[in-house]
Design brief:
- The chain is an alpha/beta fold and 308 residues long.
- The chain has helices at residues 4-7, 17-21, 31-43, 66-72, 88-96, 110-117, 121-137, 160-173, 189-203, 219-228, 256-265, 274-287, 297-302; strands at 12-15, 48-53, 80-85, 101-107, 141-147, 151-152, 156-157, 177-182, 208-212, 233-236.
- The longest helix is centred in the middle third of the chain and has 17 residues, at 121-137.
- The structure holds coenzyme A and zinc ion.
- The site of zinc ion (ZN) has 8 residues, from loops.
Length: 308
Amino acid sequence: LFPYTTLFRSILINEVGLRDGLQNQPSILSTDQKLALFHTLRAAGIRDFEATSFVSPKHVPQLADAAEFLRLLPQDRSLRYTCLIPNERGYERALAAGATGIAVVLSATEGLNQKNIGMSLVQATEVCERVVRRAKDEGLFARAYIAAAFACPFEGLTPPRVLFELLDRMRTAGADELAIADTIGAANPRQVKDVFQEAINRYDDSHVAAHFHDTRGLGTALAWTAAEAGVRRFDSSIAGLGGCPFAPGASGNVATEDLVFMFNDVGFETGIDFNALLAAVGTAATMLQAARGGHIVPWARSRPQAAE
Ligand code: COA
Ligand code: ZN
């Protein structure tokens, strides 16, 4: 469905700021502000976006405008949008809004499924399988998150055996992309190396994505480790916004500008212009106090040639 993604980019950056980044913010951006932020990201060359989520507006009021926002996004075959889906009701809402891509969210533990989507692990697994199957039958792009892939805020370390059982189930159901998510930013490079090497062997790099949070400042170290294991698809959030309101201890995602700088600098093709991305960081910062910016930003802004 989206063959372009592997044709001319060696690293695919999936911008999750509009969903993971905004879902936890104390202030709620207007639909117009979200659209303005989207356009600055698009102008920097980003083509893959997690646009919003179709969850309960009571639980996540920040994304209550999901349907309206999705309809305002430019329809262009070179752009990929996914929407996070917690249950079948969310899938119906996404379909009605014209979604072309979805992302189901399955946590690897009992505790996080309960807190996040009010389901047991068994229930959540079955619901995610059904939604992925339907999405594929109906011609949508389907990604499956396994949240708390390394550690859970309620249950500690996640056994890799459990993680891979769930990944297998999602891939068998037809998921195009498996997003292995360090939801609370608790992984270390050693674990990342082992898990992603195994994932690349089992599913191929075209089906594996890495989703890191920068809670302990290790986000880029984890991303580099995953890249060395063969991962070519990465989630990140502009200005390092992000975090799950239902997973205590989760802080911002690894910043898009940190990943883009690192991958461009070592010679990977991301298709994203770092200086233009700094303008998007500026836009996010004017809208949200929490937009602290990635680790690279102070250096980038102090360069004589810094572009705003
Ligand atoms: N979209 C909108 N509303 C939804 C919905 C959806 N996908 N699914 C359920 N609802 C509504 C129900 O109709 C009900 O509404 P009411 O209170 O007006 O009757 C209410 O939400 C509660 O639904 P219920 O089925 O009792 O389940 P719940 O209270 O356990 O909530 C979720 C389930 C999934 C809706 C809720 O836990 C949720 O939105 N979680 C957000 C998860 C998230 O965004 N996490 C961060 C990203 S990983
Ligand atoms: Zn996340």
